């Protein structure tokens, strides 16, 4: 089968190059929780910001991650009524340790980790300190933008 070089092919190549590091594409203004925050607060932040996961940190250090699925599963397993939600803490339902990558990891690496681990986002760390997050949407935005020529070398132009 003859493979033609298409804009999508070139976009895929750019995702592999040196400019496709998570550091260049990650969201740096990350919404986070403390382990002592209530599950109710976590649910409110997820809903208000229309996101599916929140890293859990203490003094900037990544401890875990809580997702909308973690909250639903945790509450179902405990058989708690909605009124009891406010009493529970994030530490009781968060996934730990969080699957994380270093800021020099590539978007391709992030996509592979998310796909194999069946997760929607990967916190990005420098040492143990949370510095950003890469989500499925970030990777799709990068790919589509590269395929359409809206990005060059990891810099957004729209």
Please summarize what this structure is:
This protein has 158 residues and is an alpha+beta fold. The protein is built from 6 helices and 7 strands. It has helices spanning 7-16, 22-25, 39-49, 68-78, 107-117, 136-147, and strands spanning 53-58, 61-67, 101-102, 121-126, 129-135, 151-152, 155-156.
Structural descriptors:
elongated, disordered C terminus, alpha+beta, 158 residues, two-stranded antiparallel sheet, 3-stranded mixed sheet, 20% strand, CBS-domain
**CATH structural fold name:** CBS-domain
Element string (H = helix, E = strand)? HHHEEHEHEEHEE
Alpha carbon gap, first and last residue = 36 Å
Strand content: 15-25%
CATH class: Alpha Beta
Number of strands: 7
Compute the number of structural domains.
1
What's the overall geometry?
Answer: elongated
CATH superfamily: CBS-domain
The CATH architecture name reads Roll
Structural class: alpha+beta
Overall pLDDT score = 81
The largest sheet is: 3 strands, mixed
Strand order of the largest sheet: 3-4-5
Helix content: 25-40%
Radius of gyration of CA atoms, rounded to a whole number: 18 Å
Structure explained in plain terms:
With 158 residues, the chain is α+β, with helices and mostly antiparallel strands. The protein has one domain (7-153): CBS-domain. It is built from 6 helices and 7 strands. The strands form 3 sheets. It has a 3-stranded mixed sheet. It is elongated. The termini are far apart.
